[in-house]
Structures are given as structure tokens and as C-alpha cells.
Design a protein that fits this description.
Helix 13 crosses helix 14 and helix 17 packs across helix 18. This protein has five domains: about 60 residues, Orthogonal Bundle (Helix Hairpins); about 230 residues, D-amino Acid Aminotransferase, Chain A, domain 1 (2-Layer Sandwich), CATH 3.30.470; about 70 residues, OB fold (Dihydrolipoamide Acetyltransferase, E2P), CATH 2.40.50; about 150 residues, 5' to 3' exonuclease, C-terminal subdomain (DNA polymerase, domain 1, Orthogonal Bundle), CATH 1.10.150.20; about 70 residues, 3-Layer(aba) Sandwich (Rossmann fold), CATH 3.40.50. The strands form six sheets. It has a five-stranded mixed β-sheet. The chain is an alpha+beta fold. The two termini are about 55 Å apart. The chain binds 2-(butylsulfanyl)adenosine (IVH). 2-(butylsulfanyl)adenosine (IVH) binds next to strand 3, strand 8 and strand 11.
């Protein structure tokens, strides 16, 4: 391979200003190939053959030539990876071949059933061993990369599987995506499919930086990867350490493959990064063993992976098996079961939330679960502690609920030594020393001091959070400083802060102060439902806030509503109605609202959209479980409501539909038990599309 890049030193040593256009063209072309090759050695193979300094030198020379002869710049030049201007919005790209999703198998039996179905449909005898390719199922963002005559021309997200977003400029910044295929005879057209991801290590690094800068941390590596790709400014994407594994092809012209394995080999040869852990298995027994092996070793995987994808190897068989509307019949995803680990519970501390609620939190000996190190887990309340009979010094079993939130599911009592200590809730607030009160019929104890700084800090965090006023750049450290210095005694005070005041704080330069101020300013016109949610009224979550904002249209109308009027709103229960009513009768509320008005907080009203009778959601009660790719939970819930459905938080006999996303929780199990219809994300998107259609959108 090296011989292709023999250096013509006579040319290289010539100063750029002495090059003729022709010489420059030749050298630039050569440099591009060379740089891309070294890029490939570094980012794809992880085996560089030149030093960073030498690489930089090549790059500098190319930049110099392109600066002198701008007409020579090509879109696939390595100098073009970064530097595209921010986009206004993403264009739409229709995939030449749809990007389907996968059906799931949760255990060995389901894998065997899949194998049997494959053989039955292919007319093979049950004793035949079908060849399968097993690949780790990466948990990132699926993308479609289009190459024309070997040149990367377009990159798109999966979107709804038919149409995605054009994120070419962003994907160009991912160094392991070749801008040009490394083979001499590339096909005229090929769609390469892969998953963009962030390693767990880079994810943790990024989050640490974000928290320091007062930005919201990402929930998990998948959100971080998706958020980085779906970024309007490619410069931001370029700063994130994204990587890709390519796992297949879509529409292809001028080349064909007999097996999936061959397609993967081709991709490797062409310079794409293909997972080295892919494995060709003969028969389902080998597949199952492979799945078991990886389930045990899953914590060694340095990137987020939530299972294995099993694909029929023969393309001929794949064609015969075909697809359903949503998934290929020739592939299935085996999902890893939630990993459980044991660790030492070192202490139980008590945190004070926005509403003054005292929450016991277990401090754990750090333990890695599903690739993320867990150091603490909520114990919810005293009742939960009694139920689990958990004591300080116990060895406990932890898992991540829905793959995200750490929780304690049990105690290994056999490991008790007798030195464990029982925990009792403090009688006074651990932060302000104020009085704690637990109503006899409730499980939660609260600090009732209205000026408790912990309450204020958490209220401010809530106020700034994504679903509330969505104020970026105000992180926990900044909030703490604002509260400690008495600069803010309620969220309205945020709107009176000045740049100069902020610049007096730790690690606050002029630019950061300006950013904070402009974010605060922007939030003044946040929608009414956000403001209602931000107020933090008990029992009023994002969904109820939306209902209230649609019903009343203004904060004034809401604040004057009678108890009866509130109770008459469908979906608002008596307890919530009472809580809202009481909230607006408090003197402190009136003061807060007056202050907000004075400082220019004028929420924009959300228009109520009449749901048409034809929408498939009309009259349906929908429950969500697990994460969706296309929407956040609150966005998805809002859609259901917008199109005439109701959203419930738990599954009961009156549930009509359960939307099952990634890492579904116990609600999924419950739905199956009750025989309630479940749909996957794709089907949900289809319903939304139909609903939109009925509204003429
Ligand atoms: S194959 C038609 N292979 O899983 C085949 N998908 O639920 C569809 N994924 O959207 C995809 N790793 O984001 C395939 N090795 C792999 C994968 C993989 C992760 C994701 C991909 C897709 C989703 C399907």
C-alpha cells in the first residue's frame, strides 16, 4: 500500500508559490490520497505509520496549496472535514432503500423460534444449520452514507426509516468515515449503513466538560452521539469524539454480494470501519453460545452496545425471506438482559429536593454496570428502605432501571456480618436544620422551611431544565454560587441579573456571562406550558402543564381559576386541582408572579389544536415505556395529546396501547400480561403520520 504514496520529493520541496497550476493540481491530489490513507491508518485501523508531526506537515502543505489555488478545492478534500457554516435546518433525504428496524429476541427460546421460522420459510429441513453473522448491536445513531463513484456525497440520519435528515457536513467531521473509498474501482453508487457512536470514556469526558460549563449533561452515550450528529453547527460536531462502525449496505449499483460477510469484507477493504468482533456462525447453537459469551463480557465493551444483531448470511436467502413493513425477516436483535452487580452500600445520605422532599440516597462503592460507573442510587423514601430491609454496610444488588437510572433491587443478606447499621430519617432538614414534616398518609417527608437553600437550588435547576424554561449555561455550580451569595432568592431574580454581577463570580468571563444573560433573556418568551411546569406546583408535571396552558391560555386566567373549574378539566384529578388552586392562593406565589411580570417574562401561549375524529389516537389511552429514537418522552406524549389521545403513566386494563421503545421497563411485561396491544417506535411514527394526515399537515 505504501508504494502508492511514494513521495516525489522534487515536487514537495518546491515552495508553493513556485508551483504551476498543473503541478499544484497533481500534488494536491496526491496529498489528499496520502492524508486520507494516514487518516484511515489512524482512525480506522488504529495503527498509524507516520508521526503526528509528519501528518500535520502533509496537511499544512495541502492547506497552503488550496489557499493559493482555491479552484482546486474538492468537496472530498480532507481540509473540508471541518469548516462548513452552521445550517438553518437540515434538509430531508429519502433513502434509496428504506432503513428498517429490527425485531427483538429476549432469550434463547426466541432465538430458536427465529431460526425455525427462517428454515420453515426457506423450505429447509429443521436439521439444517443456517449461516448467521453475529454483530454487536451498537447503541448510537443509525446513518446512511451515500458514495458516488467512491466519493462521499451525502450522509443522512435514519429518521422514520424512509426519509432522514441531511447531516452530511456533520458526518464529514467524523474521522473514521472515509471521504473517498480507498479502492481503485469503486461502484458508481452505494449506500453504506452504520452506527455513529461515542465511546463510554469520551461520553464521560464530554459530560464532565458540559457540567463544568454549566450545560446539561447528556443522559447516555447514545443521546450524546445523536445530539452531536443532529447539530446545526458542524464545528460543534467536530469537537465531539464520534466514531462509526459500518454494518451493511443499502441500495447498490455496479456491484453485488453473495453473502453479508462478503459485503462486510468489501466495506473493510474500501476503508470503512467494520467491527472486528463480527463473527460468522454456523447454526443457531453457535449463535446462542456467542450471545451468551457476549452477555457475560458486555462490560468489557468500550462503547454502548445493548445486544447482538443476528443476520442470515446468504443474500439469496435474505431476498427470499423479505421484510415485513418494519423489519427484515432475515435478522433479529438479541437484547442483553439488564445487568445486575453487587456492591457495598457505604452510607445513606439525605438529599433535599425542590419541594423540600427528603430523599435517602445510597452511597455505593463504585461499580460498573452496563458500562457506566455507578456511585450512588436513590432509595426513594423510608418505606422503600424498610421494604428492602437495607442497612448501611450491606452488600446490595444494583441495576440500571431502563438502562439509565441506578437502583437497588435487593440485599445479599448472607453477606451480613452483624456490623450493619439501620438507617433512620433525620428529624431536621440536613441542609438548613429546618423542621421536617411527614403527613401521616404520605410516604415522603419534607423540609417545611420556605427559605431552605437546598430547595431553592433545586427549584432553580428545575426552572432552567430542558422541559421547563430550557435555560442553558446555568449549571449546578453557578446556581450554588448564586444562592450562596444571596444573589437569587427565587427564579424571578434570575431575570434581574446583570452581566457585571455574573462576572464577579468564579470562572465567569465576559463571554460566559453574556451567554448566560442571553439564555435567560431568551427564556422570557418561553411557551406558557413551560412556565407553568417551571413553577414547580406539586402534582403538575410537563403534561399537566400543557393541559392547563391549553385550557387557560394565560397565567392570569389560570391563577384566577376556581377549584370547581380546575376539577372540571378532564384528566386533572381532584388532588392536582386542589394543589393548583392552593398554589395560586399563596402570598408567595402572587409575589413571584408579580416579579416575573415586572422583569418582562411574557410566556407565549400554546394554541389548542382541535383533534380530528379520524386521528388514530382519538379516545385512546396510551402508555410509553423505554426510550424512543425520534422524540423525547415529553414530545411523544404531547403528540398523542395533540392528536386526541390520552397519556397514562402506568398500564392498566383501560390502557389501549403501549408504545415500546428501547430498554422497556416493567410496563412492557404488564402489557403482555394484560394482553394490551403493544407497538414499536416505527408503528408509533406511522400512527403519528396518519394523525398528521388527518389534520392536513
Ligand atoms: S442492521 C435491516 N446491524 O439497530 C437491518 N443494526 O433496530 C437493520 N444497530 O436502526 C439494521 N447495530 O441503529 C444492524 N450491527 C448492527 C447494528 C444495528 C446497531 C441499530 C441500528 C438500527 C437498529 C435496528
Amino acid at each position: 500500500m505504501e508504494s502508492r504514496f511514494e513521495q516525489d520529493l522534487s515536487l514537495r520541496s518546491k515552495p508553493v508559490k513556485e508551483l504551476t497550476l498543473n503541478e499544484a493540481r497533481q500534488e494536491a491530489e496526491k496529498l489528499r490520497r496520502e492524508i486520507e490513507y494516514h487518516n484511515y491508518r489512524y482512525y480506522v485501523l488504529n495503527a498509524p505509520v507516520i508521526s503526528d508531526a509528519e501528518y500535520d506537515e502533509l496537511f499544512r502543505r495541502l492547506v497552503e496549496i488550496e489557499e493559493r489555488f482555491p479552484e482546486l478545492v474538492t468537496p472530498d478534500s480532507p481540509t473540508q472535514r471541518v469548516g462548513a457554516p452552521p445550517a438553518e435546518e437540515f434538509g430531508a433525504v429519502t433513502h434509496r432503500l428504506p432503513m428498517l428496524s429490527l425485531d427483538n429476541a429476549f432469550n434463547e427460546d426466541e432465538l430458536r423460534a427465529f431460526d425455525e421460522r427462517v428454515k420453515r420459510m426457506l423450505g429447509l429441513s429443521p436439521s439444517t444449520s443456517v449461516e448467521y453473522v453475529c454483530e454487536l448491536k451498537l447503541d448510537g445513531l443509525a446513518v446512511n452514507l451515500t458514495y458516488e463513484n467512491g466519493v462521499f456525497v451525502r450522509g443522512a440520519t435514519r429518521g422514520d426509516g424512509i426519509t432522514g435528515e441531511d447531516v452530511t457536513a456533520n458526518l464529514r467531521t467524523v474521522r473514521s468515515i472515509p471521504l473517498r473509498m480507498l479502492i481503485d474501482d469503486p461502484p458508481p453508487f452505494i449506500e453504506v449503513r452504520g452506527e455513529v457512536f461515542m465511546t463510554v470514556r469520551d461520553f464521560e469526558l464530554l459530560n464532565r466538560q458540559r457540567v463544568e460549563r454549566g450545560e446539561q449533561p447528556f443522559m447516555n452515550p447514545r443521546n450524546a452521539a445523536a445530539g452531536s450528529v443532529r447539530q446545526l453547527d458542524p464545528k460543534v460536531t467536530a469537537e465531539r469524539r464520534l466514531d462509526i462502525f459500518c454494518y451493511g449496505v443499502g441500495h447498490v449499483e455496479g456491484i453485488s454480494f453473495e453473502t453479508h460477510w462478503q459485503a462486510l469484507e468489501f466495506l473493510k477493504r474500501a476503508g470503512f470501519k467494520v467491527n472486528p468482533d463480527n463473527r460468522l456462525c454456523c447454526g443457531i447453537d453457535e449463535v446462542i453460545q456467542h450471545c451468551i459469551d457476549w452477555t457475560e463480557r458486555r462490560h468489557e465493551i468500550p462503547y454502548p452496545a445493548d445486544g447482538m444483531v443476528i443476520k442470515v448470511n446468504q443474500i439469496r436467502y435474505q431476498e427470499l425471506l423479505g421484510t415485513t413493513a418494519h423489519h427484515p425477516r432475515w435478522a433479529i436483535a438479541y437484547k442483553f438482559p439488564a445487568e445486575q452487580k453487587t456492591t457495598l452500600l457505604k452510607d445513606i445520605i439525605v438529599q433535599v429536593g425542590r419541594t423540600g422532599a427528603l430523599t435517602p440516597v445510597a452511597v455505593l462503592e463504585p461499580v460498573e454496570v452496563d458500562g457506566v460507573v455507578i456511585t450512588s442510587a436513590t432509595l426513594h423514601n423510608e418505606d422503600q428502605i424498610r421494604r428492602l430491609d437495607v442497612r448501611i454496610g450491606d452488600t446490595v444488588i444494583v441495576q440500571r432501571a431502563g438502562g439509565v437510572i441506578p437502583e437497588i433491587v435487593g440485599v445479599v443478606k448472607e453477606r451480613r456480618t452483624g456490623d450493619e447499621r439501620e438507617f433512620t430519617m433525620p428529624k431536621r432538614c440536613p441542609v438548613c436544620g429546618g423542621e421536617v414534616y411527614k403527613p401521616p398518609d404520605e410516604v415522603v417527608a419534607r423540609c417545611i422551611n420556605p427559605t431552605c437553600p437546598a430547595k431553592l437550588e433545586n427549584w432553580l435547576k428545575h426552572w432552567c431544565s430542558r422541559d421547563a424554561m430550557n435555560i442553558e449555561h446555568i449549571g449546578p455550580k453557578l446556581i450554588k454560587q448564586l444562592v450562596d451569595r444571596g444573589m437569587v432568592s427565587d427564579p424571578a431574580d434570575l431575570y434581574a441579573l446583570t452581566r457585571w454581577q455574573l462576572m464577579g463570580l468564579e470562572r465567569m468571563g465576559e463571554k460566559s456571562a453574556e451567554n448566560v444573560i442571553s439564555e435567560i433573556e431568551k427564556s422570557k418568551t418561553a411557551s406558557l406550558d413551560r412556565l407553568i411546569f417551571a413553577l414547580g406546583i406539586r402534582h403538575v408535571g410537563a403534561r399537566t402543564a400543557r393541559i392547563l396552558s391549553e385550557h387557560f391560555g394565560s397565567l392570569e386566567r389560570l391563577s384566577e381559576a376556581s377549584l370547581e373549574e380546575l376539577m372540571n378539566i378532564p384528566e386533572i384529578g381532584p388532588e392536582t386541582a386542589r394543589s393548583i388552586y392552593d398554589y395560586f392562593r399563596m402570598e408567595s406565589t402572587r409575589e413571584l408572579l408579580e416579579k416575573l411580570r415586572k422583569y418582562g417574562v411574557r410566556p407565549s401561549a400554546v394554541e389548542k389544536v382541535a383533534a380530528p375524529v379520524e386521528s388514530p389516537f382519538v379516545g385512546k389511552t396510551v402508555v410509553f415505556t423505554g426510550e424512543l429514537d425520534s422524540y423525547t418522552r415529553s414530545e411523544a406524549e404531547a403528540l398523542v395529546q395533540q392528536y386526541g389521545g390520552k397519556v397514562a403513566s402506568s398500564v392498566s386494563r383501560s390502557t389501549d396501547l403501549v408504545v415500546v421503545g428501547r430498554n422497556p421497563g416493567s410496563k412492557y411485561q404488564r402489557a403482555l400480561e394484560l394482553g394490551i396491544r403493544t407497538i414499536n417506535e416505527e408503528e408509533f411514527l406511522e400512527m403519528v403520520k396518519q394523525a398528521k394526515g388527518t389534520m392536513g399537515e
